[in-house]
Amino acid sequence: MGNYFSSERFVNIFPKVISCLSVNLHIVFWSMFFGTVLAIFVAVLRIRKVPVISGFLGVYISFMRGTPLLVQMMIAFYGIPLVLGNLFLNVFGINLNRLDPVIFVEIAIILNEGAFLGEIFRGAITSVPAVQAEAGYSIGMTGAQTFYRIVLPQAFKVALPHYGVDFIGVFQNTSLVFLLGVVDVLGKAKTLGAATGHSIEGYLSAALIYVAFSLFLKAVFLLAEYKMNNGTAKVI
Amino acid sequence: MSFSMQNFYDSFKSALLYAPVTIKLTAITFIVSLIFGAVIATIRNYRIPVLSQFFAFFVTVYLGLPTMVALLIYNLLFMTLYADVANAFHISVPISDVNPIIIGYFTLIIGTTCSISESIRGAFRGIEKVQYEAGYSIGMGRFKTLTRIIFPQMIPILLPGMQNSLIGLLKASNLVSAISVVEIMTGALLPSLLYYSYLEGYVAAALVYWIIGAAIEILAHFAEKRCGKYLKIATES
After folding, report:
1. For A171, which residue in chain B has the nearest alpha carbon?
2. Do B2 and A212 touch (CB under 8 A)?
3. Which of B76, B175, B206 has its CB closest to that of A67?
4. CB burial of residue A156 (10 Å; 0-12, 13-18, 19+)
5. Residues B77-105: pLDDT tens digits?
6. Half-sphere exposure of B36 toward its Cβ, with a 13 Å CA cutoff?
7. CA-CA distance, B167 to B109, in Å (whole number)?
8. CA–CA separation, B80 vs B83, rounded Å?
9. Which residue in B1, B77, B210 is closest to A67 by CB distance?
10. Cα gap B167→B149, rounded to integer Å
């Protein structure tokens, strides 16, 4: 058991593992980008209470919140080629079965984030007191002006901490993608472990990368929050 | 490849059969984590030297570690070190007879304890200082004030967060499938393995998770209504 962990192997393996961090960041970036766009639509439609769509969105959010992300990824991975496979093959000439699994992972996370961020945005927008909107109307602003100039900036400040937590959550959730055969940080660690017969160094590298980057993201969002609060005057 | 209702039905039945595994894993982990989380939050709230700094550091770092990575590391350590430890304690159970779910319990309990301790710490801030003083003024000790005055008032503040934690835990319990524990998802896949059609299995698993999640949401809704009762009375009078 003496040579169970060797710092030499750790130093050797760490650069190989961290080189795959770009895969994780790629997933995080595109998922958060499209997830945020989707969430804005979800939040607006939920607040407007559009008859049929609102009910549908309720079911969608309940499903996304109530089922594990891994199951959602797997359903996207097996289900999307089944439902849309023929269409894509005939119209665009793309065989969905040959597509990189990263695409399906990203679709699953985008749909998942659409629900979670949608609820965060909705909560943030509804948390702005009605008197704020009335203040806008009272000085003759239109509905759109009131929303963009008065409600949205205040809602943004409410949503930011939750958005940060969610962002870090998405980064940590990318640790699941190796189960679909994507070679990310953890996938690389596992592959190298299987090849060399020494897994612990690779896993510890992955753990170190995840912890360090999560803390880094947390610091970035705390800084952003701090900057946001600079503008508020203290009510005396 | 197509979606077969018969396979879906088989998978659903199989998933239901393994639902107790997931429910037990979720419930026990939640209760144990709640107790540990309360202890850690209390230690940090009263700023007990050394321990509070240690937990502050540990919780911050540990929350950066994804459950899956932790699970794989503990599983690996368990696999390689079990024989030595078992020998040292004269345990004669071979590793093949040990259910890997105990690694799942271990991982989930540590992770959930950290996140719950943070929510409880947040709830501590929601209690005004006068409440402690009220307890001390009628001669209650620190411990009695905590259990009789502070904790009961924290329950309504905590409930929404605890509901999220519980559903999050239900979903996180799905990860133990990676260390070959048979729970809802792997259970739902058992019939699929015969036909090489996995979609039905995953959809069935999703449905079972959804049902359990909805049940938790309904229960939490009632709990919230009940716990908030005294607040309403206080404001109305």
Report:
1. B66
2. no
3. B206
4. middle
5. 888 888 888 888 887 777 777 888 999 99
6. 18
7. 14
8. 7
9. B210
10. 28
Residue A160, token pair as written in the block: 């930011």
pLDDT tens column, A14-53? 888 899 899 999 999 999 999 999 999 999 898 888 888 8
Look up residue B228 and give its amino acid: G
Is residue B127 within 8 angstroms of chain A, CB to CB?
no
State both tokens at A28.
């995080």
Q: Is A52 exposed, middle or buried, given 0-12, 13-18 or 19+ CB atoms closer than 10 A? A: exposed
DSSP, res A232: P
Helix, strand, coil distribution of chain B in percent, nearest 5: 85, 0, 15
Determine contact, residues B220/B163, Cβ cutoff 8 Å: yes
Contacts of B80 in chain A (CB under 8 A): 1, 4, 200
One-letter amino acid at B154 equals M
Regarding an ipTM greater than 0.90, the answer is: no
CA distance B71 to chain A (A): 10
- Every domain of chain B and the residues it spans: 20-184+198-236
CB contact under 8 A, A72 and B206: yes
Distance between CA atoms of A205 and A18, rounded to whole angstroms?
8
User: What tokens were used for A33?
Assistant: 């980008």
pTM of the model: 0.88
The CATH superfamily of B20-184+198-236 is MetI-like (1.10.3720.10)
